[in-house]
Amino acid sequence: MGGKRNFFRNRGSAEIPIFAFSFRLYVPTYTGDCCIVTRSSDSATQSIGFVAGVLDIASLETFCSGTDGYVTTWYNQGSSGVNCVLKTGTAGGKIVTSGTTDKLNGKPIIAVTDWQFEINDGTALTDLTGFYVGKLVNFRNQIQNNPSSGIFHYRVVNTGFSFRHGGGPIPAYTVTSSFTTQSIVGFVCASSTDCYCVHQGVDLGKSAIDFNASFGNIFHMSNVAGNYQELVYYNTAHVSDYVAMSTTINSYYGAY
User: Fold this and answer.
1) Domains contained in the chain, number
2) What is the mean pLDDT of each run of 10 residues along the chain (256 residues)?
3) DSSP letters along 46-79, please?
4) Residue 52's domain is classified under what CATH number?
């Protein structure tokens, strides 16, 4: 919890993100639970909260004693009030194996497969700052004006990171670093035109191509396969301090 308090102090004000999905208490004023978990033994469900600012692992492992557990709803600590919910027909994000919480670098993590989670929200976006913490198999996030064909999206996969415009095949900006170990990747889109990226605390700078686009009013998150520990999005462009924000997040996770 201390790392997160430091994060808000470093920001100068308690700015609340529009989306904050985490197994720690990312937003200090948030009072709800962390997630809903379904156990595989009998398909029973239970809402799991926080203890001392982190996921209540004791309650989680008691509920999933001797069986596997899957996150089917990840509660949003952010301002939009829209949760990350399971897409119909999928199993959920696996968080417990045979009664033991799955972890990466000592922190809880969920493993997800083909198109499992979606977030849809009516917030109009022109500026955006986002951070992902986890380990990728193949991961994609999209910001679109509808779930199937948007005028702008960004993509992270296990071989790199790119911004794309109009869904075209040529990435405007690519990072060739691998995300197959625990990674913290962040991006900034300013006024729907300039795009920036940071990976493992290294400032990768501004995209080679500027955009002239609007994000529209639906935020659509999808994934192919990957492992999640935290997803956070602000509807402001932190061009001057996105690297410092990433470094502060790393003070909790120790990814680099």
Assistant:
1) 1
2) 38 74 95 97 97 97 97 92 78 92 96 68 71 72 41 46 46 51 82 75 71 45 70 88 94 94
3) EEE-EETTEE-HHHHHHHTTTS-EEEEEE---SS
4) 2.60.120.200
Q: In terms of residue numbers, what domain contains 144?
A: 2-253
Q: Does the predicted model carry a pTM greater than 0.90?
A: no
Asked whether 71 and 54 are in contact (CB, 8 A), the reply is no
Long-range (24+ apart) CB contacts under 8 A made by 148-156 are 150/216, 150/220, 151/213, 151/214, 151/216, 152/189, 152/192, 152/211, 152/213, 152/214, 152/215, 154/187, 154/189, 154/195, 156/132, 156/185
